[in-house]
C-alpha cells in the first residue's frame, strides 16, 4: 500500500472510532429519558 492510502485509512479509522467514542460519552453524560406510552 502506498503512503497516501495508509494515511487515508488511518484518518478514516480515527474519524469512525472517534465518532463512536464521542457518541457513547455523550449518551453516558446525557441519557435518554424513557418514553411513557
Provide the descriptors you would attach to this structure in a database record.
single chain, 37 residues, mainly alpha, 1 helix, 73% helix, rod-shaped
What is the average per-residue confidence, as pLDDT, rounded to a whole number? 92
How much helical structure, as a percent, in the residues?
over 70%
- H-E string: H
Q: Provide a count of the helices.
A: 1
CA radius of gyration is 17 Å
Biggest sheet, in brief?
Answer: none
Which descriptor suits the 3D outline?
A: rod-shaped
Low-confidence stretches: none
Q: Give the distance, in angstroms, between the N- and C-terminal Cα atoms.
A: 54 Å
Taken as a percent bin, the fraction of beta residues is: under 5%
- DSSP summary, beta strand count: 0
Structural class: mainly alpha
